[in-house]
Each structure stands twice: as structure tokens, then as C-alpha cells.
Amino acid sequence: MKDMNSNKKIIILISLVLAVVFLVSFSALKRNETKETGVVQSSTNDFVGTVDKIVSAPVKAISNLTDSIGNLFNTFDENARLKKRLDSYAVIQGENENFKKENKDLKNQLEMSDSLSSYEKITGSVISRSPDTWQNILIIDKGKDAGVEVDMPVMGSEGLIGRIIEVNKLSSKVELLTSNNQSVNKYPVMISPDKGDMSYGLLASYEEKSGHFIVNQLTSLDGLKSGDKVTTSGLGGNSPSGLIVGEVVGIKKNGLGLDKEVYIKPINSMYDISFVTVIKRLAESEG
């Protein structure tokens, strides 16, 4: 029974198709004879046009959707390429800034080296500085082979930053003036006031909160004021004299109230150090 129904449907469908074909052919033949569009052909054209719209609508929709998806992927790819180029630009810009900074630091170090013409010196670079000991220790790329020895003072791009405490064949360890190791020998310094006698003292410690060195055991406070230059005195024989340390920013009593201390602002940044100059000795003393 089902097979008979299916056959009927097929026969009806074929009949409709044949009827449409016949109507189209007949209308075309009549149009050739009369040069006018007949009612049958007009109805047929309307029917075919309607069917075409119904069939083509989803096809066009799918085509438009495909184009939209393609455009979306193209936009995604273009954004990815632009982001990659932007990332590359950021890297190049960062490298350029680093090169500029290194160039500036090196220039400052060379100027510092030129100002120390009366000293024998060794110029080197910082190769290691651990975050755990940032204010205490750094490692430089000069050692015994370059003539570095323990206790030699070390200069940054503007002034004294520390001393050599350990020497290896190709590297050395520098203890910074900002070290919290209170057992190390501190530098004897002198303060040069505009008026009055030179004042001598000991660079005893570093106050991390204020970022200042503290000088005590001063021979005199007469005439001292903010802005006075502080240099190494050379007393004790462990370091040459005249190496710039910083400038006076304040004077106050110590915690016990028995002595006055002078606060010194470091001339050299103690946090941003790339190049160093190790001071060997006075050049004129060689012989």
C-alpha cells in the first residue's frame, strides 16, 4: 500500500514537471508567433520567479554567512599580525631604551675615569647583583688577572660606591657602602666647609629609610652646612683621599644624645649601577 502511494506521488510530481515544461514551451512558441507575452506564459514566469526566489533565498543567506565568516577570520588574522608587529615594536623600543641608558652610563663612567687621572684604575661592568643582597653586594667582571685586590675602593659613574672584599681570577665581589654589615671597616671621610677648618669623621652606616649615609666621630662641626662636599680622607691607609662620596643634607644628635651625626646624600645612585671603576692607587706613587 505504501509503495502504491509513493508511486502515485512520483507520477503526480512528474506530471507537474511535464505540465510546467509544456506550458513554458507553448508560451514561448506563441510569443514567437505573436511577439507578445501571453497570459499563460506570464503566469508561468511568475510561478518560476517565485520558486526561484524561494530556492535562492537560503542559498544567498548561506553565501552571505560564508562571506561574513571569511571576513571575520581575515580580520582575526590581520589583528594577530598587527599585534605581533606591535609586540616586536615594543621589544625593539625597550632594547633601544636600554642601549641609550647603557650608552649614557658608559659615558658618565668614562667622564668619571677621566676625572681620576691621578689614579691607576680598572674599568669594569657589573655582571651579577642578587635581589636578596641588592644593597650589600655586587659582582664585577674584573679580577686578579686585571690587577684587582682586596680593599680597593670602587667608584660608580659619579662617586664612591664601595670596596673590593673578594677577588677571583676573572671576577670580584664588591661590598657597597649601603651594606647593613656593621662589622666591616667603614671609610674615613672629610667634609669641606666653605668657611672654617676641614672636619674629619667616619662613614659609619647607611639609613635605608632616608637613603642617607651617617658620618660620626667628627673632629668639628664648626661651619658645616647642607651642600658641603664629602670625600674620602685617606686616613688609615686603606683608601686614597679625594674620592667623592656625597654632600651634607643634615646634622642631628644620635640616638643616645651624646654625639652629633652628619647625614650625607650619596652622590652616586646606589640602586642603578652598570659600570664601575676600581681605584688601584695614585699613579705618581708607582715606581
Automatic annotation (TrEMBL):
Alphabetically ordered keywords of this record: Cell shape, Coiled coil
Coiled coil found in the keyword field: yes
GO CC terms in record: plasma membrane
A Pfam family assignment: MreC
UniProt xrefs under InterPro entries: Cell/Rod_1 (IPR042177), Cell/Rod_MreC_2 (IPR042175), MreC (IPR007221), MreC_beta-barrel_core (IPR055342)
Superkingdom assignment: Bacteria
Any GO BP: regulation of cell shape
Coiled-coil residues: 89-116
Ranges for domain Rod shape-determining protein MreC beta-barrel core: 126-280
The keyword Coiled coil is assigned to this record: yes
Database matches in Gene3D superfamilies: Rod shape-determining protein MreC, domain 1 (2.40.10.340), Rod shape-determining protein MreC, domain 2 (2.40.10.350), Single helix bin (1.20.5.490)
Family recorded in the similarity comment: Belongs to the MreC family.
Protein task: Involved in formation and maintenance of cell shape.
Protein's UniProt name: Cell shape-determining protein MreC
